[in-house]
Amino acid sequence: MGLVVQKYGGTSVANVELIKNVARRIISTKEKGNQVVAVVSAMGDTTDELVQLTRQITPKPEPREMDLLLSTGEIISCTLLSMALRAAGHEAVSLSGAQAGIQTDAAHTDARIVAMNPGRIWRELQGGRIVVVAGFQGVTESMDITTLGRGGSDTTAVALAAALCADRCERYTDVDGVYTADPRVCPEARKLKDISFEEMMELAVQGAKIMHPRAVEMGALHNIPIVVASSFNDAPGTLIHNEVTMELQSKIRGISHDTDVAKITIIGVPDRPGIAAGIFEPLAEKRVSVDTIVQNASANKMTDLTFTVARKDLDKAMDVIKPLVKSIGAKQCVADSTLGKVSIVGTGMQTAPGYAAKMFRTLSDKGINIELITTSEIRITCIVSEKQVVEAVQALHQAFRLERVA
Amino acid sequence: MGLVVQKYGGTSVANVELIKNVARRIISTKEKGNQVVAVVSAMGDTTDELVQLTRQITPKPEPREMDLLLSTGEIISCTLLSMALRAAGHEAVSLSGAQAGIQTDAAHTDARIVAMNPGRIWRELQGGRIVVVAGFQGVTESMDITTLGRGGSDTTAVALAAALCADRCERYTDVDGVYTADPRVCPEARKLKDISFEEMMELAVQGAKIMHPRAVEMGALHNIPIVVASSFNDAPGTLIHNEVTMELQSKIRGISHDTDVAKITIIGVPDRPGIAAGIFEPLAEKRVSVDTIVQNASANKMTDLTFTVARKDLDKAMDVIKPLVKSIGAKQCVADSTLGKVSIVGTGMQTAPGYAAKMFRTLSDKGINIELITTSEIRITCIVSEKQVVEAVQALHQAFRLERVA
Predict the structure, then answer these.
(1) Could you tell me the CATH superfamily of domain A2-174?
(2) Secondary structure percentages of chain B, helix, strand, coil, to 5
(3) Best of A62, A90, A129 to mutate (most B CBs within 10 Å, chain B)
(4) Which residues of chain A are at the B interface, by a Cβ-Cβ cutoff of 8 Å?
(5) Domain boundaries defined on chain B
(6) Is the complex ipTM higher than 0.85?
(7) Residue A304, phi-psi category: left (phi > 0), alpha (psi -120 to 50), beta (remainder)
(8) B2-249 fold
(9) What is the pLDDT of residues A378-403, one digit of tens each?
């Protein structure tokens, strides 16, 4: 009994049969006495197809126009789902992001939610209806349609759960939970019963394609428990929440990896205040998302600065960096796009110093060279050659015995 | 120089190349010093494809959901057109019906415009931008998306032209003007330079698929000159307006035909007040659009009542009529779905009595039996066998010498 927000990803609503399947799942939740708000992504490849159309017209579509165009994808899936619910005998109504009261700033293609006005949703729920909301989209104060960028539909769902004070948010895709490592890479990987927001955030940021970190962050902020599960079966998923069972503390919870890493190193950077800002501000202006940043200790007032970006952004980043090298008085810059990264994540890592050593030893025993190391309180990340990423994940999974239930 | 509203139909924006072609046409109008508001229909078969999707889910989609779904078709074409204009170096912005301020009643799938709030369009025009509006759609007071039903995009264009006090409305499709008869049926048909609103309305109602009568009516009401032309060439189109050149008065202007006619006759209807209302009210409730109605002179307090409907509505109409036959005390009802109609249209027909006689004689000479006759001030319509419609059009075109410029 309660108010449940369910989010269904693009693969879960990829065709009419799957939409009917999702309708059955929603009805089953409703029939247990819950009020249900469902958030849907666009059907399968709809968004890609729309992007393809724009490519035939212009290499640089105007972001505002792009948003209005792409918003149609989620409207199509949400109206079809609402029809499927009605065809199965349940009152339902579909709402666009604007109708659902999701107000955003005007940063088109990557808008942030600034206010939630869920009055219409409340009225529909009071009327006994299932509410289906188009994910990924909102509306500005001046009535322009925006999209929320990567992880947008996840963010819609968690934001709605927060605004509606929902009892929980359930997030369905074709992946049935959070694993200790990617099961496609590491067959011994085990599904976790639960995981903390912080651990999930580190896993998500570090490349586990389960749920966007932005949505996890919002869940943490508003303390909305999120269940990650599959819409294709009834296996229990993974609960992302605040309280993690005591006996699981101080353990490595999972290994994430990412093979989409490019590294840029600026060699011989003069070590004076303002240099880093002078490098990363122009990158931010060009909307290049910088991941790991490492600056080596300075010797002779000179330092080397290394950072990583997604591969698709490498050319754009180099276009920014190359002219900067001269102007800041650095020696040169070099790029490497053949890298990947592997991270171990777990709460309490910092108070148990053996983890880092064990990670480095494990990689070394396999002959894997570590290019870069960065750490957070609950994560250690190594940048290694892309070719050795899979081997690294498998070795670490075995070394930390993640196949065992703690 | 002025403010021009241009409307492009689905065939004119059916693919990316055609959208670019439309962009060039708009730019050429703009470069002559005009402000341009373009209204677009959905690309080619988009709407049909969306309807197909709903068919796989439910035979009776909820009209509100249907409207929200179908509204995406025009949004896709209008954003792509706006991108094409920008790619060609012109500032442009696309607006949904809601953003364009087209407010309607809540009669989903067949909404009527109740108010136009073109503030946003004005601001965009002031900013020097070309405005592209999604046709066929509006929004209710409670922010629900509606569609305008048949002829919806034409209606959007003429309503915008009226609200913006535009100098003219140009309506582009794959047909390059109004002809004296359908050129596919009558090769001698001649394109008209201009035609009055009233004549166009009669032609449109009677089956010329050029422009929806609803939009023509709105043009007449607000005195908005409408140019009907092709987006595939630069041939001059036909101007629909109030003033028709004097020497063209008192002439047959065109012949329209329609092969989508079904006839229902109720035989032996008691001739007392309220009977007609008792028949046509239930039909209206089922949204059956009745075209021609003819009631024969009453003899012995009994009369025969005949009316025509579109063939797709015949079953629905018979479902309504059959139970009524008994309850009103009529004898029986019979249906015929093998009919078509042919009309001659022209101002001043009433004051020149020879036209009707000439029409009937022409048909008779060809051995074409007339099932029903109806007339208006500027039109004479004969219902004949569907098989003889083409022959009737050709014979009448020749008899009235419409191939000659008056």
Answers:
(1) Acetylglutamate kinase-like (3.40.1160.10)
(2) 40, 30, 35
(3) A62
(4) 16, 19-20, 50, 53-54, 56-58, 60-62, 64-66, 68-69, 71-72, 75-76, 79-80, 82-84, 86-87, 93-94, 96, 98-99, 120, 143-145
(5) 2-249, 255-399
(6) no
(7) beta
(8) Carbamate kinase (3.40.1160)
(9) 888 899 999 999 999 999 999 998 88
